[in-house]
Amino acid sequence: MFELLDRDANGRTGKFTIGKKEIKTPNIAIVINPNRMLVPPKELKGFGADLIITNSYIIYRNQKLREKAEKGLHKFLNWSGPIYTDSGTFQMYSQNVKDINSEEIIDFQEKIKSDIITPVDMFTLPDDSKETARKKLKETSKRILSARGLTKKTLNAPIQGGLFLDLRKKACVEAKKSNPDLFSIGGIVPLMEQYRFRELCDIILTCKQNLPFSKPVHAFGAGHPMVFSLLTAFGCDLFDSAMYSIAARRGGYLTTNGTHQFENLTEFPCSCPMCANSNPRDVENKEEFLTKHNLYVTFQEIRTIRQAIKEDSLWELVQSRVRSHPKLLEAFEYNLKKYKRFISKHDNISKKSAFFYSGKESEYRPEVILAKERLKKVKSKRYFTKKPFGRIPVELSGVYPFSQSIIPGEPDKRVRSKPEEAVKKTIEYQFGKHKLKKFKVEISRKTGRIRRVYSDKLLGTIRSYDGLFLPTKEGANFIDMKKVVVDDDAVPFVENGKSVFAKFVKSAKGILPSEEVSVVDKKGRILAVGKALLNEDEMKDFNRGMAVKTR
User: Residue 308's beta-bridge partner residues?
Assistant: First the structure.
């Protein structure tokens, strides 16, 4: 089960329940090689690990390892958290292994009590022909379906299809038939090794469009900190990799901006526990030092991303990270532009953080796309211009994102207008048509800003941080608000002030996250008003978590 908690860009934080265990996302599964554990699993908690992943095929083929694992994988690895097992697919690719039987590997994963089970998918290479990719996809789909019949554990469904986006879409459609618990986008390691980030992100966003929003998506083999924020912003919830260990063996010192070679370091550009009071000349065991540093920087970036989502600043984090490599910046610009409509459906329409213009790619961010669309509904006699939004009615000068934006070279000044006109234009901007004619406006003595709108009763308030109108239940009668229809079981709870949970939503047309909506029964009677936490598709898809936070 997966529950969405916070969101920014196309990224999200959530709770992923695995059996009786639970982890927070975004997260990374640390790869454990049972033949070579430089950092024992029991020590990984100290770095921030919640989830580990190991290769069931490697254990299965080694008699000594197999005998130990058959007594219980958690006991064998001395790990109390959830364990994710891979099936050997990467060995098929990297070591040209061809004798992996999917049903035997599924049975073995069950036997050793893995928490997340993965069938043996057919690894599709970037240079595979479309016919080859199609055949591999067909076989992978069969194996996923077979696996669902062999296990009741948390099941991972790998998505193959190579570089062919239509095959990736088909793979998603086929995988959904097995009702797995998470989806992993496979066959992407070669793209990352070759810095083909544009194609990588194109694949991820294609898959996101065709997968259930209520299930986590795992970027299989993505383990370098420099890509985490970008892939999270485009929809990935989980990562995994042995990069921390592989890089260490090669003398690689990982950072969020790339990899340094240890031999070139004269000092450590990091303040993790390994680096804070050390210098390169004093390090005795280079591989152990680098392994631990790489783990620290990996988890620091994961925590940074989760906090950025909480603070509505993920876009700003991504825009700073992608400038570490031209290929990352290219991938960001290309896919942000190509998928701007899809991404706009999953980002909050209003945020507590300011909009920072950080380069031309900012012009394709959801805040800009949605604002331009809404501006078409509002006519005025007076306008002001602000990059990248264009002409803005002066009555909206205090509304997000126009007032809450920082644009290089443009002064931050607020244009004054009549309070009553500002209220009308704000409502038009948010909702379109309305029937509000005669009303009074209360102005704050302290700030000089509009606080309340009322007639005989309170019709709504203007929220201080974004200047948007929050209608009351009374005010909703005068506004053409989008509606969330709930089933009969939820009606008495909503009327008593309870929020709306996704499983009780019957319909929700055209709703975007953080929009103001009315909650109605099947007859259209307004029960409450509040803020949508999910969009239209998510309200249909989720069976867990809150859909509308009512007031």
Answer: none
Q: d(Cα 125, Cα 92) in Å, to the nearest integer?
A: 11
Residue at 404 is within a domain: no
Element (H, E) at 168: helix 165-176
Rounded CA-CA distance 547/232 in Å is: 22
What does the alpha-carbon distance between residue 494 and residue 84 come to, in Å, rounded to a whole number? 40
Q: Which of 283, 300, 334 is the last residue of a domain?
A: 334
Write the secondary structure of 293-339 as one string of H (helix), E (strand) and C (coil): HHHHHHHHHHHHHHHHHHCCCHHHHHHHHHHHCHHHHHHHHHHHHHC
The 10s digit of each residue's pLDDT in 453-505 is 999 999 999 999 999 999 999 999 999 999 999 999 999 999 999 999 999 99
Domain assignment present for 351: no
Q: Does residue 302 belong to any structural domain of this protein?
A: yes
Q: Which residues are catalytic?
A: 86
Looking at the structure of the chain, the number of domains it has is 2
How far apart (Å, rounded) are the C-alpha atoms in residues 85 and 121?
13
SS3 content of the chain, % helix, strand, coil (to 5): 40, 20, 40
Domain coverage including residue 546: 481-550
Confidence check: pLDDT of 415 > 90: no
- Residue 499, domain member (yes or no): yes
- Beta carbons of 374 and 539 less than 8 angstroms apart: no
Peptide bond into 388 cis (omega under 30): yes
Alpha helices in 385-458 (DSSP H): 419-431
pLDDT tens for each residue of 200-229: 999 999 999 999 999 999 999 999 999 999
Q: Which of 282, 308, 334 is the last residue of a domain?
A: 334
- List all residues 6 or more positions away from 111 whose beta carbon is below 8 Å from its beta carbon: 70
CATH code of residue 511: 2.30.130.10
Question: What's the chain's average pLDDT?
Answer: 94
